[in-house]
Structure formats: structure tokens, C-alpha cells
């Protein structure tokens, strides 16, 4: 019986050893296959239940220059990280569990010595980037001046049901074709700015309480030259006060935009404009500017709500347009960002017309 027990014990130990080896090998093989492109999903969880505990580590691990989609699933949590998706990491997707539970936070600002470009909590340079159900936040506050939550320098970038939250310069839509669907975007001064060619569909635009003495400007589009293609098109969006602004007794003016650069292009189409929008609608970049020097294209079509304005109240700049249907169609997904050619591959819903 001693011999039988000894043999059985050795077999048991050997079985445990083989099981451990198989588990380790399987885990290593899984990550290796992910890196080769055979599997394309990585999991980030702060409790250690995923492949990584930090989003930045998952981005670093993702394959370079891949033609395949790599999905980084980010479990619920507040991630205090500064992230860059570089050009050599195309086709990445950050997939959260909900913009109210999966958050990426930072607090860099011009007020604390950072240049606007480098204040971003998350910067996207990789082509074909997608984000779903996740928040990008800069918590620096209104007194810290420019403080970017999300900077996008990427072609064919798309965002679905995300939150982009800050104060001044929240979203730096800098370059490339971009699409935002059912996102919540919050800020105070110039909080959607840059020279991307971007369409925002069914987004909530929340205007917050600015620093003392400031007015709110939703957009600051930056097209520099007549032949450039940049511009912002806001379709079926809602411009609303944040709870903080709504509860405030402060007298704060809010404008649909102001021209960061001479040839700025911005249109609002079939959007709800709350009473917080100033009757004039649009604001000069600087008080001393002569609007006649602007070569802007500012347009409105079929907007509604108490802030929609009238021909008697809106600005009378040469570049302002009460658009007709055909004119507004030029700013649709299909025409303005050629969305029919690339958005179907993202699986994000979109309306190709107006």
C-alpha cells in the first residue's frame, strides 16, 4: 500500500504541474496571438482581472501598423492617465462600459504651464480610431484657461456615446475627417475647436459656468485658407446649459461660435438651441475686429428652440447664411466627411443626409 500511495501521489503532483504549465502557456500564447493579429481584443481592468491594469500599457502592446481592428475593452473605473494613440497604432478601439462609469482623467492646463497642444488628457493620432462608451475628462477647471480633454489629429476617427468634458478648449478636433454620434460635450470657452472636418450628430452640447468675466463660445473653427476643407457641422444636436449654469444667477452670454481663423466654417442644422444662446448667435474673435475682414462661412438651417434667433437679431456679417436645403446638404455626413465610404466599417449608426 505504501508503494501504491507513493505512485498515486507522484501522479497527482505531475498532473498539477502539467495543468499549471498548460495554463501559463495558454495565457502567454493568448497574448502572443493578440500581438500577431490572430486575436484582436485586450482587456484593461484595475482589479487585475484583465490583461492589463493601465490603458497605456494596452496601447503600447497593441500591434504596430496593423490593418486589423484591435479592441481595447476598458472596464469600469477612473483611470488617471495621459494617453497618446500614435500614428503607428492605427485601427484601435477604446471600448468602455459606459461614459458614466469608464473615465480617463487628467488636469493639465495652460494655467499650470502646459502648452494647449500638450495639455490633452488623451491625444489621438492613429488613423481609424474609434471610441465607444467612455469619458475623456480634463478637471483643471475654468480658472486654468486652456485645458484639453481630447485632441484628435487622426483621419477617419469616430466617437459613439462618449463624454468629452472640460472647460476652455475641451475638444481639440485638430485635423482629419471625424465623426461624433450621441456624445456629451461640455465646456465654456471655445470648447469645440480646431481645423478638422467634423460632423456632430445627435450630440448634447452642455454649456458650463465660465470664469468670472468670460462669455461662453461653443466653437472656434480654425480654417486658415480658402482652399482648405476643415469645418464643423452640428446636426440634430442640443445646446443646453449644464446644471451648474442653469442654477447660477450669473449673467453669462453664450454664442454658437467665433472665428479662430479667417476662413472658419461652422453650421448648425436642425438642432435645438436653448435660451442661453445670445440672440446675435455669433461672436467676433476680438472686440476690435471688423467682421468685414472675416471670410467665414457660418450657417443655420431649420434649428428650433428659444435660442434659434431671427433675421432681425442674428449677426449681419457677409459670411453668415440662413441656409436653404441644398446648401445645408453640403454639410451632411455623405458630402462633408465622405462618411458613406468609411463609417459603415465602424458599426456606429449615422444619418447620411440631413
Automatic annotation (TrEMBL):
It is an enzyme of class 3 (hydrolase). Keywords: Aspartyl esterase, Hydrolase, Signal. The active site is at 190. Residues 1-25 form the signal peptide. Its EC number is 3.1.1.11. It holds the Pfam family Pectinesterase. One of its GO terms (molecular function) is pectinesterase activity. It catalyses: [(1->4)-alpha-D-galacturonosyl methyl ester](n) + n H2O = [(1->4)-alpha-D-galacturonosyl](n) + n methanol + n H(+). One of its GO terms (biological process) is cell wall modification. Pathway: Glycan metabolism; pectin degradation; 2-dehydro-3-deoxy-D-gluconate from pectin: step 1/5. Residues 42-340 form the Pectinesterase catalytic domain. It comes from the Eukaryota. This is Pectinesterase.
Amino acid at each position: 500500500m505504501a508503494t501504491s500511495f507513493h505512485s498515486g501521489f507522484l501522479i497527482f503532483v505531475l498532473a498539477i504541474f502539467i495543468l499549471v504549465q498548460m495554463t501559463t502557456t495558454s495565457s502567454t500564447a493568448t497574448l502572443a496571438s493578440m500581438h500577431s493579429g490572430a486575436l484582436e481584443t485586450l482587456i484593461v481592468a484595475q482589479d487585475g482581472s484583465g490583461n492589463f491594469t493601465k490603458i497605456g500599457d494596452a496601447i503600447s502592446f497593441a500591434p504596430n501598423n496593423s490593418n486589423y481592428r484591435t479592441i481595447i475593452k476598458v472596464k469600469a473605473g477612473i483611470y488617471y492617465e495621459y494617453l497618446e494613440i500614435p500614428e503607428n497604432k492605427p485601427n484601435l478601439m477604446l471600448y468602455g462600459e459606459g461614459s458614466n462609469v469608464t473615465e480617463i482623467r487628467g488636469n493639465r492646463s495652460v494655467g499650470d504651464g502646459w502648452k494647449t497642444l500638450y495639455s490633452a488628457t488623451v491625444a489621438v493620432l492613429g488613423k481609424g480610431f474609434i471610441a465607444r462608451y467612455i469619458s475623456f475628462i480634463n478637471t483643471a477647471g475654468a480658472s486654468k484657461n486652456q485645458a484639453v480633454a481630447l485632441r484628435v489629429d487622426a483621419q477617419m476617427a469616430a466617437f459613439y456615446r462618449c463624454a468629452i468634458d472640460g472647460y476652455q478648449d475641451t475638444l481639440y478636433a485638430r485635423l482629419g475627417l471625424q465623426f461624433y454620434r450621441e456624445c456629451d460635450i461640455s465646456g465654456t470657452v471655445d470648447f469645440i475647436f480646431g481645423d478638422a472636418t467634423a460632423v456632430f450628430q445627435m450630440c448634447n452640447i452642455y454649456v458650463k459656468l465660465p470664469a468670472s468675466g468670460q462669455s461662453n463660445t461653443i466653437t472656434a473653427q480654425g480654417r486658415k485658407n480658402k482652399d482648405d476643407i476643415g469645418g464643423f457641422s452640428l446636426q440634430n444636436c442640443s445646446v443646453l446649459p449644464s446644471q451648474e449654469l442653469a442654477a447660477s444667477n450669473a449673467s453669462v452670454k453664450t454664442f454658437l461660435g467665433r472665428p479662430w481663423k479667417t476662413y472658419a466654417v461652422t453650421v448648425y442644422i436642425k438642432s435645438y438651441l436653448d435660451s442661453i444662446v445670445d440672440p446675435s448667435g455669433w461672436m467676433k474673435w476680438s472686440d476690435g475686429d471688423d467682421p468685414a475682414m472675416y471670410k467665414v462661412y457660418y450657417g443655420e438651417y431649420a434649428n428650433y428652440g428659444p435660442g434659434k434667433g431671427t433675421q432681425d437679431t442674428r449677426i449681419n456679417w457677409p459670411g453668415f447664411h440662413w441656409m436653404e436645403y441644398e446648401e445645408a446638404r453640403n454639410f451632411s455626413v455623405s458630402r462633408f466627411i465622405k462618411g458613406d465610404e468609411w463609417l459603415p466599417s465602424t458599426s456606429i449608426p449615422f444619418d447620411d443626409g440631413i
